[in-house]
Amino acid sequence: MNVKQIVFLILGIIFLILGLIGLALPVIPQIPFLITAVVLFAGALPVFKKRLMGTKIYREHGCSIVQRFKILRDILGEEELEYMAEVAEEMSDAGDEAYREDGWDAYSQETETESEAETAESSAREK
After folding, report:
1. DSSP 122
2. What are the domain boundaries of the chain?
3. Which tops the pLDDT comparison, 94 or 37?
4. Which whole-number Å values give the CA distances from 58 to 38, 52, 67, 87, 115, in the listed order?
5. Alpha-carbon span 117 to 24, nearest angstrom
Protein backbone atom coordinates (compact mmCIF):
# COMPACT_ATOMS: atom_id res chain seq x y z
CA MET A 1 0.00 0.00 0.00
CA ASN A 2 1.22 3.44 -0.82
CA VAL A 3 0.70 6.58 1.26
CA LYS A 4 -2.33 7.68 -0.77
CA GLN A 5 -4.12 4.39 -0.15
CA ILE A 6 -3.34 4.49 3.58
CA VAL A 7 -4.70 8.04 3.87
CA PHE A 8 -7.89 7.04 1.98
CA LEU A 9 -8.28 4.00 4.24
CA ILE A 10 -7.92 6.04 7.44
CA LEU A 11 -10.32 8.72 6.16
CA GLY A 12 -12.75 5.98 5.08
CA ILE A 13 -12.73 4.49 8.58
CA ILE A 14 -13.32 7.94 10.12
CA PHE A 15 -16.26 8.64 7.79
CA LEU A 16 -17.66 5.16 8.42
CA ILE A 17 -17.57 5.78 12.17
CA LEU A 18 -19.27 9.17 11.70
CA GLY A 19 -21.94 7.51 9.55
CA LEU A 20 -22.57 4.84 12.18
CA ILE A 21 -22.83 7.52 14.86
CA GLY A 22 -25.32 9.27 12.58
CA LEU A 23 -27.49 6.16 12.62
CA ALA A 24 -27.82 6.45 16.40
CA LEU A 25 -28.05 10.25 16.64
CA PRO A 26 -30.66 11.95 14.45
CA VAL A 27 -28.69 15.23 14.56
CA ILE A 28 -25.83 13.87 12.43
CA PRO A 29 -26.64 12.93 8.81
CA GLN A 30 -25.45 9.39 8.11
CA ILE A 31 -25.89 9.02 4.34
CA PRO A 32 -23.26 11.58 3.19
CA PHE A 33 -20.72 10.10 5.60
CA LEU A 34 -21.41 6.53 4.50
CA ILE A 35 -21.25 7.40 0.79
CA THR A 36 -17.96 9.24 1.36
CA ALA A 37 -16.62 6.21 3.24
CA VAL A 38 -17.53 3.92 0.32
CA VAL A 39 -15.74 6.19 -2.17
CA LEU A 40 -12.66 6.40 0.05
CA PHE A 41 -12.57 2.63 0.58
CA ALA A 42 -12.82 2.16 -3.18
CA GLY A 43 -9.84 4.49 -3.61
CA ALA A 44 -7.84 2.61 -0.98
CA LEU A 45 -8.65 -1.02 -1.76
CA PRO A 46 -8.54 -2.27 -5.37
CA VAL A 47 -10.65 -5.31 -4.47
CA PHE A 48 -13.37 -3.07 -3.00
CA LYS A 49 -13.25 -0.82 -6.06
CA LYS A 50 -13.66 -3.78 -8.41
CA ARG A 51 -16.59 -5.11 -6.42
CA LEU A 52 -18.24 -1.68 -6.20
CA MET A 53 -17.91 -1.03 -9.92
CA GLY A 54 -19.41 -4.42 -10.66
CA THR A 55 -22.70 -3.69 -8.92
CA LYS A 56 -25.84 -2.86 -10.88
CA ILE A 57 -26.49 0.31 -8.86
CA TYR A 58 -23.04 1.68 -9.68
CA ARG A 59 -23.41 0.88 -13.37
CA GLU A 60 -26.81 2.54 -13.58
CA HIS A 61 -26.30 5.58 -11.35
CA GLY A 62 -22.85 5.89 -9.82
CA CYS A 63 -20.83 5.82 -13.01
CA SER A 64 -22.46 8.97 -14.39
CA ILE A 65 -22.07 10.77 -11.06
CA VAL A 66 -18.39 9.90 -10.79
CA GLN A 67 -17.74 11.12 -14.33
CA ARG A 68 -19.21 14.54 -13.46
CA PHE A 69 -16.98 15.23 -10.44
CA LYS A 70 -13.22 15.58 -10.81
CA ILE A 71 -12.44 14.68 -7.19
CA LEU A 72 -14.25 11.35 -7.56
CA ARG A 73 -12.39 10.66 -10.81
CA ASP A 74 -9.11 11.41 -9.03
CA ILE A 75 -9.90 9.07 -6.15
CA LEU A 76 -11.18 6.19 -8.26
CA GLY A 77 -8.88 6.57 -11.27
CA GLU A 78 -9.99 7.88 -14.67
CA GLU A 79 -8.77 4.98 -16.83
CA GLU A 80 -10.91 2.43 -15.04
CA LEU A 81 -13.90 4.75 -15.04
CA GLU A 82 -13.80 5.15 -18.82
CA TYR A 83 -13.70 1.36 -19.15
CA MET A 84 -16.59 0.96 -16.70
CA ALA A 85 -18.66 3.53 -18.61
CA GLU A 86 -18.22 1.49 -21.79
CA VAL A 87 -19.11 -1.74 -19.98
CA ALA A 88 -22.17 -0.14 -18.37
CA GLU A 89 -23.38 1.12 -21.74
CA GLU A 90 -22.94 -2.31 -23.33
CA MET A 91 -24.75 -4.00 -20.45
CA SER A 92 -27.57 -1.48 -20.65
CA ASP A 93 -27.98 -2.15 -24.36
CA ALA A 94 -27.91 -5.91 -23.77
CA GLY A 95 -30.53 -5.52 -21.02
CA ASP A 96 -32.82 -3.58 -23.32
CA GLU A 97 -32.54 -6.28 -25.97
CA ALA A 98 -33.23 -9.03 -23.42
CA TYR A 99 -36.25 -7.06 -22.21
CA ARG A 100 -37.68 -6.94 -25.72
CA GLU A 101 -36.83 -10.58 -26.49
CA ASP A 102 -38.48 -11.87 -23.32
CA GLY A 103 -41.77 -10.33 -24.35
CA TRP A 104 -42.28 -8.14 -21.33
CA ASP A 105 -44.00 -5.56 -23.49
CA ALA A 106 -46.60 -8.13 -24.55
CA TYR A 107 -47.04 -9.23 -20.92
CA SER A 108 -47.66 -5.67 -19.72
CA GLN A 109 -50.20 -5.14 -22.52
CA GLU A 110 -52.04 -8.35 -21.54
CA THR A 111 -52.11 -7.24 -17.90
CA GLU A 112 -53.48 -3.81 -18.85
CA THR A 113 -56.22 -5.44 -20.95
CA GLU A 114 -57.19 -7.74 -18.08
CA SER A 115 -57.34 -4.85 -15.60
CA GLU A 116 -59.50 -2.83 -18.01
CA ALA A 117 -61.89 -5.79 -18.32
CA GLU A 118 -62.08 -6.11 -14.53
CA THR A 119 -62.81 -2.39 -14.20
CA ALA A 120 -65.63 -2.66 -16.75
CA GLU A 121 -67.12 -5.65 -14.89
CA SER A 122 -67.04 -3.88 -11.53
CA SER A 123 -68.66 -0.74 -12.96
CA ALA A 124 -71.36 -2.89 -14.60
CA ARG A 125 -72.09 -4.56 -11.24
CA GLU A 126 -72.43 -1.21 -9.50
CA LYS A 127 -75.17 -0.14 -11.95
Report:
1. H
2. 1-52, 54-127
3. 37
4. 12, 7, 12, 12, 35
5. 50
